[in-house]
C-alpha cells in the first residue's frame, strides 16, 4: 500500500511539473512554444492563461530568439498569450510576426500603445477585446484576415484606419468602442456584419458606400449620436435592429432597392419625426418602429403587404395613419400605446384585427373602415373606452351588419358615411386639378396611386379600395 502511495505522489509531482512548464521555454521575460513548423509562438506562462498574468510594463517581441544553440524566428502571438495582463502598458511587435491569435491581448486594460507591423496577415477573434487604454489603431494593409470582436470594448479608441481593400467589416469588430467618433468605410466593403458598430455611442456620422449590399443585424444599434443615415441603393434589406436605439437619428434616406424592414430596424429612434417608406418595401417587421415616440408622420406605401406585430407600438406622437389596401390584417399590438393617435383609416382589404392592435390608443376618436363586411375582431383589439368614445365610420348600408357583428356590437357610436365615386367628384376636366385630402386634412400628392382609404376632393368624399 505504501508503494502505491509513493507512486501516486510521484505521478502528482510529475503532473505539477508539466502543468507549470507547459510553455517550452522563456527568454528575456517572454514565454515561447516551438510550433510544428519549427518557428516560435509567444505564449503565456504555465498550463493556462488564467494561471499567471506576469507580463507587465513594456514588452518587446523580437524577430529571432536563440534556444539551446538554435536560432528560431518568432512568427506568431498565440491565443490568449497576454490575456488579462492589466499592467502591460506597451508592446513592440517585430516584423517577423504574421499572426495575432484569438484573445491575445484580451483584457489588457493598461495597454496604451501597440503598433501592428506590416508583416501581420491575420488577427483573430477578440485579439484586443476590452483594451480600454488604447486610443488609436492603424491596421496595416497587410492584414487580409480579421475576425469578430477584435477591437470590441476598446472604450477609449477614438480613431481607426481600415485597409482600403477590405470587403467585410466583421461582426462586433468595433462593438462598444464608445469613444469612436467617425469611421471611413472603404468603397471595397460589401458587408457590414452584425453588431459591427453596435454601442459606438460617440459616433456622430457614418458614410455607407455604394459598394455595401448588406447591413447586418444590430450593426449600428445604440449609436446615439448619429443624426442622419443614407442607405445606398445597393442594399435590399434593413436587417433586424440595424439602427435600433439610434436616439439622435433625425433623417433617414431609404432607396427603392429596399424591400423589407427587419424586426426592430428603427425601434426606439426617438429623434425621428417623419418617415417615408419607399414603394419598394413589401414588409415591415415586428417592432420595426416601436418606441419612436416623436414620430408624427409615417407614409406606408401600397406595396406593403405585411405589417408586423408591435410595429408602431408606443409611437405616442403619431396622430393619424392610413393603412394601404395591400394589407389584409392588422397584427397583435401593431399600434398599441399610440396615445396620440386620433384617427385611422382601415381599407376594405383588411379581414382581421388582432389582439391589442389598438390597445392604449386613448385619444382615438375616429376609425373609418372601407369594408362593408366587418373585419374579424379579437377581444381587447381596442381600448375598452373606445367602445364609448370612438366613432366607427362604415360604408353606407352596412350599419346594421356592424351593430350585430361579434365584438363590434360593443361600440356605441357606429355611423355610416356617404361615398361618392371619384368619377362623380370630378365631372369636368377642370376639377381634376383639385387637391386631394385625407380625412385628417392632410393634402395628398395627387389622386394617382393613393393607398386604400377615404379621401376628399372638390368638397366630396371618395373611397379607394
What is the tally of beta strands?
37
Overall geometry: elongated
Mean pLDDT, rounded to whole units?
88
Uncertain ranges: 1-5, 7-20, 420-432
Percentage of residues in strands? 25-35%
Helix content: under 10%
Structural class: mainly beta
Please work out how many helical segments DSSP would assign: 4
Please compute the radius of gyration using only Cα atoms: 32 Å
* Span between termini: 94 Å
Tell me about the largest β-sheet: 8 strands, mixed
What does this structure look like?
There is one protein chain. The chain is mainly beta. Helices cover 7% and strands 26% of the residues. The protein is built from 4 helices and 37 strands. Strands 1, 2, 3, 5, 6, 8, 10 and 12 form an 8-stranded mixed β-sheet that branches. The longest helix is centred in the N-terminal third of the chain and has 19 residues, at 2-20. The protein is elongated and about 100 Å long. Mean pLDDT is 88; it is low at 1-5, 7-20 and 420-432.
Describe, in short, the structure shown.
With 465 residues, the protein is mainly β. The protein is built from 4 helices and 37 strands.
Label this structure with key terms.
465 residues; mainly beta; eight-stranded mixed sheet; 26% strand; elongated
Amino acid at each position: 500500500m505504501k508503494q502505491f502511495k509513493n507512486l501516486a505522489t510521484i505521478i502528482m509531482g510529475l503532473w505539477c511539473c508539466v502543468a507549470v512548464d507547459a510553455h517550452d521555454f522563456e527568454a528575456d521575460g517572454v514565454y515561447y512554444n516551438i510550433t510544428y513548423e519549427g518557428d516560435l509562438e509567444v505564449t503565456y506562462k504555465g498550463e493556462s492563461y488564467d494561471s499567471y498574468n506576469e507580463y507587465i510594463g513594456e514588452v518587446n517581441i523580437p524577430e529571432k530568439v536563440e534556444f539551446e544553440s538554435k536560432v528560431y524566428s518568432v512568427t506568431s502571438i498565440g491565443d490568449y498569450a497576454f490575456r488579462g495582463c492589466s499592467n502591460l502598458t506597451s508592446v513592440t511587435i517585430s516584423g517577423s510576426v504574421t499572426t495575432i491569435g484569438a484573445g491575445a491581448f484580451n483584457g489588457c486594460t493598461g495597454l496604451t500603445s501597440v503598433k501592428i507591423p506590416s508583416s501581420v496577415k491575420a488577427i483573430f477573434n477578440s485579439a484586443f477585446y476590452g483594451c480600454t487604454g488604447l486610443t488609436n489603431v492603424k491596421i496595416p494593409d497587410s492584414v487580409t484576415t480579421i475576425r469578430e470582436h477584435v477591437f470590441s470594448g476598446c472604450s477609449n479608441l477614438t480613431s481607426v484606419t481600415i485597409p482600403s481593400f477590405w470587403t467585410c467589416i466583421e461582426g462586433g469588430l468595433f462593438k462598444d468602442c464608445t469613444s469612436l467618433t467617425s469611421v471611413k468605410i472603404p468603397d471595397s466593403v460589401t458587408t457590414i456584419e452584425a453588431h459591427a458598430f453596435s454601442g459606438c455611442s460617440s459616433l456622430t456620422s457614418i458614410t455607407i458606400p455604394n459598394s455595401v449590399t448588406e447591413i447586418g443585424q444590430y450593426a449600428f444599434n445604440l449609436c446615439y449620436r448619429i443624426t442622419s443615415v443614407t442607405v445606398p441603393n445597393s442594399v435590399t434589406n434593413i436587417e433586424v435592429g440595424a439602427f435600433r436605439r439610434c436616439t439622435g437619428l433625425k433623417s433617414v434616406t431609404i432607396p427603392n432597392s429596399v424591400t423589407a424592414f427587419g424586426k426592430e430596424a428603427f425601434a426606439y429612434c426617438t429623434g425621428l419625426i417623419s418617415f417615408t417608406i419607399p414603394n419598394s418595401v413589401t414588409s415591415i417587421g415586428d417592432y420595426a418602429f416601436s418606441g419612436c415616440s416623436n414620430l408624427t408622420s409615417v407614409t406606408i406605401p401600397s406595396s406593403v403587404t405585411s405589417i408586423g406585430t408591435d410595429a408602431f407600438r408606443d409611437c405616442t406622437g403619431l396622430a393619424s395613419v392610413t393603412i394601404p389596401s395591400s394589407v389584409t390584417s392588422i397584427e397583435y399590438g401593431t399600434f398599441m400605446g399610440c396615445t396620440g393617435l386620433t384617427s385611422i383609416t382601415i381599407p376594405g382589404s383588411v379581414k382581421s384585427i388582432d389582439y391589442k392592435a389598438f390597445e392604449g390608443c386613448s385619444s382615438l376618436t375616429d376609425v373609418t373602415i372601407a369594408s362593408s363586411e366587418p373585419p374579424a375582431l379579437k377581444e381587447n383589439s381596442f381600448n375598452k373606452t373606445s367602445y364609448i368614445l370612438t366613432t366607427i365610420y362604415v360604408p353606407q348600408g352596412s350599419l346594421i351588419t356592424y351593430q350585430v357583428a361579434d365584438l363590434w356590437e360593443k361600440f356605441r357610436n357606429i355611423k355610416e358615411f356617404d361615398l361618392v365615386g371619384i368619377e362623380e367628384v370630378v365631372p369636368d376636366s377642370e376639377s381634376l386639378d383639385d387637391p386631394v385630402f385625407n380625412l385628417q386634412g392632410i393634402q395628398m400628392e395627387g389622386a394617382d396611386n393613393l393607398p386604400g382609404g377615404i379621401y376628399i376632393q372638390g368638397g366630396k368624399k371618395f373611397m379607394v379600395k
